[in-house]
Design a protein that fits this description.
With 216 residues, the protein is an all-alpha fold. 74% of the residues lie in helices and 0% in strands.
């Protein structure tokens, strides 16, 4: 039984997630262990088990926080604009993701391991944050693309969400990877998260507009 006020418990959980986030800047998911997190945390490793039962749960909490932060950015777009063109909406969403590089990095990992090794209550909390971002994307499309049907919005969202899983590996290419592609004769052009995301969105929204014109 964990003792303390809800505020203190939340603060402790946040400290553990912060340690994981800091380690993740210089280490891979595989390299980070509960032992490594315990070394860097301001309290003992056994204490961590009072809050998280596995490193996957800690990463899932970090993942959840990243979705919450992205949702805040999407909500700001929704609330701060009365009208946005397809280009303007694509720019705004692309910028929101360019500022959430860690979210995209986590998305490019094996999410199945994180989810499979987390308790149901932790996974449910994560899914709420994930679901909120999906709902905000739908609201953005409904508000700024008012002629788009619910069925079209569903198609756009379910093309864009899988797309997000592959953005980070294409944008965050190491010098070693670049050298290997050069040696292999791979035609590679460096593109930023913003550029890749904008191109995807403007084509999705542009395809919708072309479809409307063809119907007319």
């Amino acid at each position: 039984m964990i003792k303390g006020t809800p505020e203190l418990l939340a603060e402790r959980r946040e400290e553990i997630v912060n340690v994981c986030e800091k380690l993740y800047k210089t280490m891979s998911f595989k390299e980070i262990t509960l032992k490594e997190i315990g070394k860097a945390a301001p309290f003992s490793r056994p204490t961590i088990y009072n809050y998280f039962q596995s490193k996957e749960e800690i990463f899932l909490a970090l993942f959840e926080r990243e979705y919450d932060r992205w949702s805040d950015a999407l909500a700001a777009i929704l609330n701060e604009h009365d009208v946005l063109s397809p280009e303007g909406l694509s720019e705004a969403i692309a910028e929101s993701l360019a500022n959430r590089e860690q979210l995209l990095k986590l998305l490019s990992m094996n999410n199945y391991d994180m989810e499979a090794n987390s308790r149901l209550e932790r996974l449910t909390s994560f899914k709420r944050a994930y679901g909120k971002s999906i709902q905000l994307l739908r609201e953005l499309l409904k508000k700024f693309c008012p002629e788009t049907t619910d069925a079209e919005i569903q198609k756009i969202v379910y093309v864009f969400l899988p797309f997000m899983f592959g953005v980070y590996p294409y944008a965050a290419v190491t010098e070693k990877q670049k050298a290997a592609m050069k040696e292999a004769g791979v035609d590679y052009a460096s593109r930023s998260i913003y550029e890749i995301t904008y191109d995807c969105l403007i084509r999705l929204l542009g395809s919708r507009q072309r479809g409307e014109k063809e119907m007319k």
